[in-house]
Amino acid sequence: MENKKLLLQKLHEKNHSTCCCELKYTVTQPVFGKGNPESEIIFIGEAPGKKEDIEGEPFIGAAGKFLTEMLDTIGMKREDIYITNIVKYRPPENRDPSKKEKEDCAEWLSEEINTINPKLIVFLGRHSMNHFFPEEKINSAHGKLITRKFKNFNTENFLPLYHPAAALYNGSMRETLIKDFKKIPKILKKIKSNSEVKS
């Protein structure tokens, strides 16, 4: 485990120094992915916010607190999972990251996914989903497992969810997100049994 942890640290440092994303010159610091490098799940958000930029850690604001609460409902802790963002630098005024900013950080994300090699990738919000599946709409795709092969990494299973920040103050969306979130253990179990059948 220590070995993978070290690999991730080196990967983040290397990509931070070579990344051509213009945002890196406007932030306090990069916000690297964090969590268990042996995790079967990666949660991918959009970009760091103000608090994340100051602390250098992903999902530690109100949305992060909500995420931790939802993990608790499925018997998991933050230490059990790995969490990162499409873009590793906070966009000014928390605006949406641009297409180019996402592209500039894309290889970094692919390397991160390959190092962890999870069984399931969970998208937190439409931005991270559309980075991989531009044709999908979050309103119809949320809570449904998408299976697809990509040439640059092994993970084939993807679950789009509403972003915790969007659902935080929207009652019906919040209920939907909690309901969708509770599907994660069953989905993971199904993926594992399918991979056992294949092998």
Describe this structure in words.
This protein has 199 residues and is an alpha/beta fold. It has a single domain (2-198), classed as Uracil-DNA Glycosylase, subunit E, CATH 3.40.470.10. The chain has 10 helices and 6 strands. Strands 1-3-2-4-6-5 form a 6-stranded mixed sheet, sandwiched between helices. The radius of gyration is 16 Å and the shape is globular.
User: Which H/E pattern describes the elements?
Assistant: HEEHHEHHEHHEEHHH
- The helix fraction, in percent, is 40-55%
Per DSSP E runs of 2 or more residues, the count of β-strands stands at 6
Largest sheet: 6 strands, mixed
Rg over CA atoms, rounded to whole Å, is: 16 Å
Silhouette:
globular
Binned strand content: 5-15%
What would the CATH topology be?
Answer: Uracil-DNA Glycosylase, subunit E
Mean pLDDT: 94
The CATH architecture would be 3-Layer(aba) Sandwich
Let me know the CATH homologous superfamily. Answer: Uracil-DNA glycosylase-like domain
CATH level 1 name? Alpha Beta
Look at the helices and sheets and give the structural class: alpha/beta
Head-to-tail CA distance between termini: 24 Å
